[in-house]
Amino acid sequence: MPALTPAVAAPAPPAAATATTEALLAPYARQKPRWAPCGPGEMARLECATVEVPLDYADPGGRRLDVAISRTRATSPRDRRGVLLLNPGGPGGSGLDMPLWLAPELPDAVKQRYDLVGFDPRGVGRSSPVSCGLTGDELNWQRPYEAASFRKDVRWARTVAEKCRARNGAVLPHLTTRNTARDLDLVRAVLGERKISYLGYSYGTYLGAVYAQLFPRRTDRFVLDSAVDPARIWRGMIQSWAEGAEPAFTRWADWTARRDAEYRLGDTPEEVGAAFWALVARADRTPIELDGARLTGDDVRIGARAAFFDPRGAAELVVRLRTAAEGGTPPAAPSRRTAPERPAPPSFAAEVPADNMDASFWAVVCADTRAWPRDPERYRRDAVRDGAAYPLYGDVGSHIKPCAFWPQGAEPATRVDNTTGALILQNEWDSQTPLFSAQGLRRVMKGARMVTVLGGQGHGVYGSGSCADATATAYLTAGRLPAADLTCRADVRRAADARRLPLPAPQGLPGAGRQTF
Questions:
Q1: Which of 505, 429, 437, 436 is nearest to 466 (CA)?
Q2: Fewer Cβ atoms within 10 Å of its own Cβ: the N or the C terminal residue of the chain?
Q3: Which among 18, 101, 28, 13 has a CA at the least distance from the CA of 61?
Q4: CA–CA distance, 203 with 228 (Å, rounded to integer)
Q5: Which tens digit of pLDDT belongs to each residue from 40-69?
Q6: Residues annotated as catalytic (active site), given as ranges
Q7: φ, ψ for residue 356 (rounded to 5)?
Q8: pLDDT per residue over 389-435, tens digit each?
Q9: Taking a C-beta distance cutoff of 8 angstroms, is the pair 464, 499 a contact?
Q10: Global pTM?
Q11: E strand intervals along 139-212
């Protein structure tokens, strides 16, 4: 097998062109990474290096990008199997420090067998970071549809796209998941590995699925955790937040009604739901001040969307909002077990543009697929329709985005449809990648198996103390995929205290923080 063979979109190029491309790619595979400590303090325990990759794999002799990689070595050289590449999600999420913060959550048996390899995807963090110069209101993309502000929102979307094109015009068409998968295969070759294993969360599941589609013979043990449906990239995935929120809201209302003595929001699901919407209406008239923020009704429903996937947390939040609306002093937010602490940013973090995560998010979700509508009126119609169907978030999910005006990606979307082995992990109640999204990935990855955590809450399964952990560990250490898809049941008594992984995810109220996959 060649050290590095390009994966190209159909139709296949002539044999002579393929041979030329392979010859131009060969020097990339012969790079020798120069490992050095990633930074001072905790980061000194992590080795970093830089690998050069072609901006355009169809033109390997052209412009190059840097991809930053990191590693911690397998703790047992005798038992070492290879490398386990890690991705935290996004798009736009930095994974360079991931071997440090994830390692304490992984079993020793996994760390004995694998070098843990982190990386910043192209355009992100230390990997030739992109910036659009976005400031202030331009970073706020969770915009509710209102007829009076529609033209303003169209101007916002066009402005973001134009600013990104002005700063990164030649690069934008190539900042795609497909090219990031090719980068990973080049990293594999540079590290001298015949195959790679992989643990990807959220957006990282789509990156892993695309790699498995392009390079099935180089795919070893792949764990795809909290999964994206390839058929929904990417507008459909943003819309899935609205679809998934309504069943979660119904579940919350039922749960809270059975605890009226504690929360006093109503003793029927209908009364509980009405109590929340009354708060939204009240905030529309007079913003509610909570934790130093003034929240409108749109802020409340958008910012609370993810909270409803945790009924107890949502009930406590709504009680705090009600108390604040009535002029009282809300109780302190209940403490929860927090995510593992990430190490202090390395010295190069200051060089990363402030809007890098947002810029790289739009770069990928807009260039990955050509399915984004170009007509602003289509977004208006869809926002009106979905606002009625999914009151919490439907209008926001379907409203206009910068992708309506984005330059077309260099290639069509990758069609995922294979028999490559992989393990998909999914909580039943996940605010960012709903259960039906993971089921969509399972349908097209026919050789995979899926573990569904019934009653599981939150975004990210492996490493959170879930009932699915044992299956994932057995797969990574012994290669044992289950004979069939499995379900296990979460311990609901421990749900509020479950470990939270520091994946890109909503910040919630107050404010309606960044939402990513």
A1: 429
A2: N
A3: 28
A4: 6
A5: 888 889 999 999 999 999 999 999 999 999
A6: 202, 430, 459
A7: -60, -45
A8: 999 999 999 999 999 999 999 999 999 999 999 999 999 999 999 99
A9: yes
A10: 0.94
A11: 196-201
